[in-house]
Fold each of these.
Amino acid sequence: MGQIRTITRRGLLVGAGAVGGYALGRGWAPELSRARGVATVGGSAAGATDGTLILNDASLLSATPVHSHQRVAASGDALVEALRAELKAARSEGRCVNIGAARHSMGGQAIPREGHAITVDNAWIEPDTAAGTYRVNGGARWSDVITALDPIGFSPAVMQSNHDFGVAATFSVNAHGWPVPFGPMGSTVRSLRMVLPDGDLVTASRTENAELFRMAMGGYGLIGLIVDLEVEMVPNQRLAPAFELMPAEAFPDAFLAAVRDPAKPMVYGRLNVERATLFEEALLVSYSPTPDQTDIPPAAGSGLVSHLASYIYRGQVGREQVKRWRWWVESGLGPRIAGESTRNSLMNEPVVTLDDRDPGRVDILHEYFVPPEAFGGFLEACREVIPDAFVEFLNVTLRYVEADAESVLAHSPTPRIAAVMSFTQEMTARAEADHARMTRALIDRILALGGSYYLPYRPHARADQFTRAYPRAQAFAEAKRALDPALTLRNNLWDSYLEPL
Ligand SMILES: Cc1cc2nc3c(=O)[nH]c(=O)nc-3n(C[C@H](O)[C@H](O)[C@H](O)COP(=O)(O)OP(=O)(O)OC[C@H]3O[C@@H](n4cnc5c(N)ncnc54)[C@H](O)[C@@H]3O)c2cc1C
């Protein structure tokens, strides 16, 4: 009961703050340029126009014509047959194929131009508590996985910070989360079955078809269509948070100490985003198991606190004083009112909580993987590049990613601090051009520090930046051509970056 009281008090306090901030800032954003009369871009959701079927993704800036879009609600043999049928039809027409899940990637990475798009909607999951693993349909979403594992006392080992994404999609971008001290999600996959471009069904793991496994991990659906996977799970836990505010330069040491502490299974960081004092302060948030691990409550959905906090978050657009105020709520008020949670509840957060409710703008993510020893250079690069940009910087979350020595297109070949950044952008050509300029400037700086950038977001990097960040891209493209000479499995990552190699 004490816990319920805590959450209610927390909800009331944050709620009062959110309503206050929203009312204060509503309709008044003095530092936001007005877009009236300016040429707009994007915005169209998926649909049919003039008989042309269009598919888009979460950016709303990737509208692409496709030949067809099949939603397949099958698993096992039926799914294998459905995927083979789509491949056969596409090959006979000389078209390409791509399979997607939530299509939250932001640059057409899950869209086949003029080709056959497939989305799998099936939540088949079979846990094996003795082995500490579960078999799962590639199209299942993390919300399905949490729903299946929570009642038996388990939790996903690694998933993103939101639960809407597909499991095979997560493997295919080799995503990471904030449970520690894990590498990317691929490191928790024991094996998978996939249909290759020629229709063959293969099992791939570290011991069987190992090269295909390494290419498909972070291979953006270009190697095979994943049917199902065997994935590791960990015990669900009741966790209590701890907060530490510090100068940003002190963050890497404190973060690495927390990540290496076995008593802290979930750890993340934040930096302040107000322009005048950008990245001066860091907040380290770590969760530890409580002494009493009996009677763990069921996974909660997105709570009142998250919904109310989203109003403060949105209030930041064009209002530097609200950014400052949000940082105080997060680093000053939050630690005093935060309560216990469970591992599953912390990861059971839908993306919709972040929705900007503004058709004239879109949130675009960036992510950079920085060697911890280069973190000071990263702070400096961001302080020099971000404040000048026309896009509005709203948030950064810092995560730990253990070295990935397996995947061919590895974003973190050595241990990294991952900086997940969120910008809000006007749906205009001027904003798109400036966003591309800023992204390239940031990537240049981060490559010079020995870091890399993440591939599921806007395709703004130059070709030379891509090959510097992913030095095995050429080998990947050559192996892909040998496996798929007709280039049946394609998407915009292939078309824009890999095809020319
Ligand atoms: C709000 C938000 C929060 C995010 N948070 C994180 C985070 O915490 N950590 C992180 O690492 N990333 C994060 N991301 C990025 C995210 O992990 C990727 O965008 C991921 O692709 C999203 O999953 P999806 O289901 O939308 O994939 P989709 O965009 O549908 O697909 C992604 C790729 O996987 C391939 N694919 C999908 N299904 C299959 C299959 N069955 N077989 C073969 N290939 C397949 C697709 O072809 C495509 O190339 C976030 C993104 C957003 C928008």
Amino acid sequence: MNVKNCASCHTLFFNPIRSQILCPQCKEDEEINLGKVHTFLNNHQDASLLDVVMETGISESQIRRYIEEGRIDTTSFTGLELNCQICGLPIKTGNRCSRCSDELKKEFQIAYLNLSRKDSNNKL
Ligand SMILES: [Zn+2]
Ligand SMILES: [Zn+2]
């Protein structure tokens, strides 16, 4: 059955393309919402996320989802504050600050070294 619960309003809708998560009505709303965000950002490039929420009436989680899906251009959203998922530091793009990315890389290298060391111990 190609019927699905809408991720936003939870009504059942016919879903021939299974990747679709929103019902036609919510999808239309989403396009309108995105239009509002884009229009607002064009005129207020230094707006914060809160400004966008206040001005467009769209919830913060919704806007964050648009950003994650790449539907809002974060380079034209200079007042946007994303936070590092690890330390919570404000960042401009992605989901980790450069320090935490470096830390992760280091940890990965150490883990890798330990692994290869164990390997060579086993061989001895
Ligand atoms: Zn819906
Ligand atoms: Zn961080």
Amino acid sequence: MSEKAKETEEEFSFKCPSCKDGIITINKTIYDSQDGDKLLILKFECNECNFTKNDIIPMATKMIPGMITLKVKSERDLKSKIYRSPTGKLEIPELELLVEPGPRADFYFTNVEGILLRFEEAVRIYKNNLNESDPQYSDIEIILGDLDKAIKGEFPFTLKITDLAGGSYIMPQDESHYSFEPREYERSDNEYNFNDS
Ligand SMILES: [Zn+2]
């Protein structure tokens, strides 16, 4: 096991995605780099198994409430990194996927592919509990077919995160497939510097 990081704060805890029993603790550290950028370093650790994960999120201008949209058109887009904070709502309308905000919702710090794989697992479990005569059964089979194609990059879809607290993040592989729309009431001319790149 790793040694305890010091001077970090604990804010959220979640169920372990690996062993499903343990609790994941997230330690957040903010690091100031020499060129003035702030980086958020997240360390995920399970108290039961060996699951541990580190990641770094640049705290750029995107900590702003609003809607992030990523058009996933190819296999490359599937590698775009995503952080859905507990205040973020995640949707893929074409696949009827919706994750509502809330501390009970699974946290997502993964890439697009990771979200699809997790969703596929959930849909399969749901399907296994359905009777074949259930009217939902054929719909579920269609979704699973689309999901399989999506995981291979053969089914274009739109991934949206709406975050009213502004903690969620997408790091696109292809900037031209990414867009960000701040919340209406947050708009006050030049108060924020949006990246046009
Ligand atoms: Zn675990």
